[in-house]
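Q: Fold this one first, please.
A: Sequence and structure below.
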Amino acid sequence: MFEYKNPKVLKTEFHITKMDCPSEENMIRMKLEGLNVIQKLEFDIAKRNLAVFHTDKDSEILKRLESLDLGAKLYKTESIEESELVRESTSVQSKLLWSVLLINFGFFIIEMTTGLISKSMGLVADSLDMLADSFVYGLSLWAVGSAVSRKKKVARLSGYFQLTLAILGIIEVVRRFIGVEAMPDFRIMIAVSVLALIANAICLYLLQKSKSNEAHMKASMIFTSNDVIINAGVILAGILVLLTNSKFPDLIVGSIVFLIVIRGAIRILKLGN
């Protein structure tokens, strides 16, 4: 008598040491897009883990993850019943991406405007970091149903645009280091960065709450994010500007953030390869 057996699915777990914010999650999603063996991706940003559910062994999964230079390491592969696999809702994921895209792009405009008004390079640099996240979320939304070649072209254009802005920012920082400039307005720096910090926490909450049975945000999910660390850095720079009456804390933090933005631009460019 024929005995029906439930089909098996492979679950491969990776530890990704440099995956510390939701925008990097979406970069990984885009990088793995198009691999037909993949059934589902399950992210745990707090622990920096990724579980890939797939039908067959495929070395291309690890190869693509390694190409992003996020420190991806294979942990283990095990077989599970297909009945255990719960599919993701693409409509829910799309709504969440639209929410965080609008929040990030809105704060890019706010921080860029207030950064120029207050003469704070820290705020200007942080605005570009917000823009970088907007690019990633936008690409994730736009890539659905788009040709792979078109997606890669847009990723390259976005990466080069972000890279150009960041390099121009560093040039401006150098000019301000050696020139005579007005002091940045520490009050605007601190106030806007606090608002940006809250915005990033909201984005993390929106993106993570659907993956947890808990209604609240785990504290570790907030403090593992680069974005939140950057916001805190600009707040600290504002406080140091107040205490030291010097422009240099703002310029130092701005330089660091511009370098982070350049690193992000390079990763976006890798999506176009």
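Q: Good. Now the second chain.
A: Here it is, same layout.
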Amino acid sequence: MDERRGDGISSRILTVPNILSFLRLLLVPVFFIAILAGHDRVALALLIASSITDFVDGQIARRFNQVTRLGQLLDPAADRLLILAALVGLTVREVVPLWLFIVIVARDVMLIVLGILLANNGYGPLPVHHIGKFATFCLFFAIPILMLGLSFPALASYTVPIGWGFLLWGAFVYWWAGVLYLIETIRVIRLPIEESTP
């Protein structure tokens, strides 16, 4: 049965967007093994395939009214895990420095803590901010550009500066969005206290 909340979000599980998101999750370990093993062209192809399915499942969900609660969890989870797998692989191979890996991952750790705080206070996850979406786009764009240089060394002199530009900008905006989520979490948690104060 397709139960919908007031905001039109469905509780269905078996939808095309959800299946595509699940397939993206399955690609993450395959991608990770490929990048660690130095199979850069395979890893790049998997990353491109994942990006295409990410775009397609979003389009289908909106156009055919298949936005679901499960999809709202699977889609960002697949994005985060893919970025994490790429960053770990590129850090192990010393393409990305350890300090930058820590900066990016620390922000995700903070969001996990904020999610736990919200859940403990009876709230669901905060809606995704457009700045957070832009940061994720920058990171998603930077990683394949850097990997393009690994796959085709002749292009590295062009791809490395562009990839690094997007990676550093993405890390900055990632934390900018993280601070906004922190402020909003504090506001939401304090709201009931303020409302009960005469």
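Q: Anything worth noting on the second one?
A: The chain has two domains: 1-94, 96-198.
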